[in-house]
Design goal:
50 residues; mainly alpha; 0% strand; globular
């Protein structure tokens, strides 16, 4: 049985990046606030074009 990969909208990614900035770069706190894994947030932060 395989896991289904979650996909996030561009708007979600932009808002998440803004939230990371508001949290002074604290990725783990932002991930907790968004209810996603910290690793997911790091990948999106690295690939986001804001």
């Amino acid at each position: 049985m395989s896991k289904k990969q979650k996909t996030y909208t561009a708007e979600f990614k932009v808002e998440a990046i803004k939230l990371i900035e508001a949290n002074q770069g604290n990725v783990s706190e932002t991930a907790r606030q968004l209810g996603i894994s910290m690793q997911t947030r790091r990948i999106q932060a690295a690939s986001a074009t804001v």
